[in-house]
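REQUEST FORM: STRUCTURE PREDICTION
Request ID: SP-0412
Submitted by: Lab K.M.
Chain count: 1
Length (residues): 478
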Amino acid sequence: MEIYRQKNVATRVTFPIIDADGDTVTAAAALDSESTTWADGSNPGAFADLTNEATEIGTSGVYFLSLTAAEVNFDYIYIRIQTTTTGAKTQHILINTRFAPLVNASGEVAVSALAAGSVTAAVISTGAIDADALAADAVAEIADGVWDEDATGHQTLGTFGQAIGDPVADTNTIYKAVVTDAAGATVGVDVVAIQADTDNIQTRLPAALVGGRIDSSVGAMAADVVTAAAIANGAIDAATFAAGAIDAAAIAASAIDADALAPDAGTEIAAAVWDRDATLSQVQGTFGQAVGDPVLDTNTIFKAVVIDATGATIGVDLVAVQADTDDIQTRLPAALVVGRMDSSVGAMAAAVIGAAAFAVGAIDNAAFNVTETLVANPAAGGIVAASFGAGAIDAAALAPDAVDEIWDEAMVEPAQAIPAETPALRTVLAYLYTALRNAITVTSTTKTFSNDAGVVTFKKALSDDGTTYTEAEAVAGP
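STATUS: Completed
RESULT:
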């Protein structure tokens, strides 16, 4: 069969595979899809495998084959689909792209030629012609037309043509010599004036920069202009200054910090501090007076650290501390035991030993002193709940009549409520006994359980579809 498709556009073709009787063949085995192609006027080439193989649509005996754009980029494409299924016929398809349908795969009209004058402004949508639609020579032609346009025909007031000016009439524009006559009437006159000023500035600049900066001679400095950040480390040493060269007014507040001093300047200052005559710095409240006067000996270093402690001087106090320390040493164990102080417990406060203090099995038979006298008859109320440890009374500790007394305790009927998910054992027994003894009413939809007074305490919804009988989870009565 011959079909038509758009050239160089991926597509699919459908076809049946039939047997000798004309019936469709399902699940055709070992499908092999090949094609040969040619241009109009030339001969077909050899058959070659296609990218994809045919695929059956369900179990219909009808198949489809997907073709890539490259595989249909020819005038004619002849396809054969073979199968090894016994009795199945080879399918043959000719695809013609020279006479493709008017509408392409995207639903657009494919037009190979237009009559002269058929494209008018009305048929072109807004924005249809964009930059990509224009060929390079079209853009160049438009640009040439703009720049080669006669300027004398475009001098309407307010237009770009009028702002540029008319080279023939010469109305002195380019927006009136940039913009509406500057100081010198035209920009050319202004440029000449700027050039003269520039020449003058040139005569007052150094010939070259030094380290990227203007080479300058500092004639004066404003007050506080020299700050700590402006002075390099070590720039100022003792040899820098003439006598009286820098007075207090010349230096800004905090201008000289630690980094501004050379090492020898710092050393000289430190030496002057430590070599200061202590007898000259004893004004009340100063550091010199707090340290003391080694000559006069007023017993300071802030009065033997701080204003005469107990022993009048710190040395006396240290002797007393040493004596106390020696005494403490005699009352401490020689070493720790597993990180703790080795101690002998002489007394304990009431209730200091709690349950958590005993390790499991810590108190066994050997722990008791059997020579001690046990209390045979405790006073009334002498044994209270706190006297027993957890689990102290087990089954063996109970007398037979005590067990009987527990079992003989009267049962309490369950209240009207939803039976709990995890009730106590006595509650479970109560529910079982009341269900066994008291009235149970069963209808086609509900089973109810009553107490001795006939009040429904809980109930269940019933369902039976003839196959399965179901009792729902219990809910409260009535």
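NOTES: DSSP finds ten helices and 15 strands in the chain.
Reviewed by: T.R.
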